[in-house]
Specification:
The structure is a homodimer of 392-residue chains. By secondary structure, chain A is an alpha/beta fold. In chain A, the strands form two sheets. In chain A, strands 3-10-9-8-7-6-5-4 form an eight-stranded parallel β-sheet. A six-stranded antiparallel beta barrel of chain A has the order 11-12-15-14-13-16. The longest helix of chain A has 24 residues. Chain A is elongated. In chain A, 59% of the residues are buried. At the A-B interface, strand 1, helix 5, strand 11 and helix 10 of A face strand 1, helix 5, strand 11 and helix 10 of B. Strand 1 of chain A pairs antiparallel with strand 1 of chain B, so a sheet runs across the interface.
Chain lengths: 392, 392
């Protein structure tokens, strides 16, 4: 409903660098991003499944163009606002991967009328009936996928509930379009090592492959069989029966993903640039202007083996300081300190010096900003700015 | 640097109600807000000190006009973006209450050149020297306040460090303008009951009153003596020697403030409107489209006696359901459940039904949105929309 727009009076100066940007702000290392995209694309190409990237992480047309295999998609979105923004940029093949609220079907119909193959997701009879009713009213068959709950994490039809699955399938096939089945192994974010991740991936695969078979055995169509989470996408050994993989955070990675071994710390493409504004030397604190408003309130590593506080501190070239974290944060203040239990030395940073802070959770941190400042490798030069949007 | 703008094509229809708004979105009960403002204003009027409201909570010109005692201020801000936006609306008296980074002084000088009495805050010699240098370069005396660390919470000169306080004071008085002293009792958010809050308030007062006396005894000026936090503002018994009180979250209140007894749950003016999109009945879960993107990742009640999860669930009129909380949240999914240990019954909510969710932390939740939808009391009618902004 509301647009976040670039202010055209403040376009990037040719000489903008990490030393001159206003802080705090969001930095994107495009070299790291490109490497992350290539890594997953190569992996899935080798397994014969297509990648349907989840654009909720970046919410940026510029990133979307780089992460999608073609300008028309496929892609996954988490809001209708994303669907509308990406459709306006030419994306034509999207799944809106959050259970559809009946009142949102009017916007779905509008996008489909414009030639966008937007697919909805659902797991209840009420939603299937609403999609069928909206299809009848609009004179078009709205495609829907049935969400399967592969791990008890969130939404979806429980795999054992064959009756529910078939009944939803019949309503969709009769009154709308049954496009397929979809699941998300949300529990894979808990980690547990490579063997455990392979088990998550196989459970994710089996949940939808079995559901698809059940539908087909009942004479119902199920052309699309969709799985997706960054950890399982990187660990699945076998994707037989799966037609596509959705993943989002792989494009940037973050400390939560590094904490469960899906990436290395120096794969993380996103950081927040902050300026030192003071010290509490007797406490071993460096105070910066990078508080939770710029880092987000996400404390996703708080339950992991290594708690990164509100983020891991790097120098301006993006190299992490050993055991130096944002130990606490207020709205516009970050408190940098040595990680508890470490005998690392606090870096010698004066008032006015700058650091880059790696995020716990890329989706949450990026959402606090309206623009990516794009750098490459260890360079301080800001190549360009890519706007991002929020809202619903 | 970047503006969040209303999309003029989607202005509010006259018939917009809580039943027709796109979800998730932010709701502001203006009756509750007005009551909260009146409560603190009356209290401080009775104590003979002025209120300098912190506008970082609302980041809205419409709310600012209602919470300030006059269109010109005084006010407090947490970013230069706030200072610039409010200055453009006529606010002329502001403290930027985050330690100044030397590189930000150019924007301070620009605003002061336009007739805005913008005051900076600092606690180091380096910052005082930078303010003096910028004053010399700009041919104007930039006013600065010295931050005092009343409770070891964050920034500020330690009260016992008289030498540091006097040296900063001398640099400012000689080369800039020493406007006064300022502190923030951040520890008061921990609660502890009325007697404890009165102790926090008295410690906050003494820290700045003593610092002011030290400066004056050394022949230095100290016209402004500023304290501020919502809990201490509501509990201070004596404010002798204090000239002004800063407070921010009192305007909306939130579950953290209710949890430490500063307000009642039905004083909370802010909520997130969300739609039911599914159930996991055997688990006792209702799934909504109100995930952490709309609620924020703030889990501020997690350390309180009553953990409210990601928020407390209310009906559309704003009445809280007994012991029904958002127990967990993903980016665009909220999981509503009965609070652990309670024998309350889950409300009977169908797919498409709507709820309002009270936030843990108003500043963090409001920051996830670009507009307030204003209602009054239990009415479903949306009176108007007030845009809000973010960024730095």
């Amino acid at each position: 409903m509301y647009l976040t727009m670039f202010d055209p009076s403040t376009r990037l100066a040719a000489t903008t660098t990490l030393d001159t940007l206003e802080t705090p702000c969001l930095i994107l290392d495009a070299d790291r991003m490109d490497r992350n995209i290539t890594r997953l694309r190569n992996r899935l190409d080798g397994m014969g499944v297509s990648l349907r990237p989840h654009l909720k992480t970046a919410k940026s047309i510029d990133v979307a163009r780089r992460v999608m295999s073609a300008p028309e998609g496929p892609a996954t979105v988490s809001t209708l606002k994303e669907a509308e923004k990406f459709a306006a940029d030419g994306v034509r093949d999207m799944i809106y991967a959050v259970g559809i609220a009946p009142a949102k079907l009017a916007r779905v119909v509008e996008l489909r009328s414009e030639g966008v193959d937007l697919v909805v997701v659902l797991d209840t009879l009420e939603q299937a009936q609403a999609v069928a009713a909206a299809s009848r009213d609009a004179g078009m068959r709205i495609p829907a996928m049935i969400e399967i709950d592969c791990d008890g994490h969130r939404s979806g039809v429980v795999p054992a509930d064959h009756a529910q699955l078939l009944e939803i399938g019949k309503i969709l096939a009769a009154g709308a379009e049954l496009r397929g089945v979809l699941t998300h192994a949300g529990d894979s974010y808990k980690g547990g090592g490579v063997a455990e991740q392979k088990r998550y991936a196989e459970a994710e695969r089996l949940a939808v492959v079995d559901a698809g078979r059940l539908l087909r055995d009942a004479g119902l169509p199920c052309p699309v069989v969709s799985v997706g989470s960054t950890p399982t996408a990187h660990h699945a050994k076998d994707l037989t029966g799966v037609t596509e993989v959705r993943a989002g955070v792989f494009v940037f990675f973050d400390l939560v993903m590094a904490g469960i071994g899906i990436c290395q710390v120096d794969d993380i493409a996103l950081s927040v640039l902050a300026t030192v504004i003071g010290h509490q030397r007797e406490k071993g604190w460096i105070i910066t202007d990078g508080g939770w408003m710029s880092l987000s309130r996400d404390r996703g590593t708080g339950k992991q083996a290594v708690d990164q506080g509100y983020g891991l501190v790097c120098d301006l070239e993006g190299n992490a300081y050993l055991d130096i974290i944002v130990a606490d944060a207020n709205q516009e203040h970050g408190i940098i300190a040595v990680r508890p239990g470490s005998d690392a030395r606090l870096p010698d940073l004066a008032v006015g010096d700058r650091v880059r802070i790696l995020p716990n959770h890329a989706c949450a941190t990026a959402a606090q900003h309206s623009v990516y400042h794009v750098v490459r490798g260890g360079s301080h030069a800001v190549e360009t700015c890519w706007p991002r949007f929020g809202g619903w």
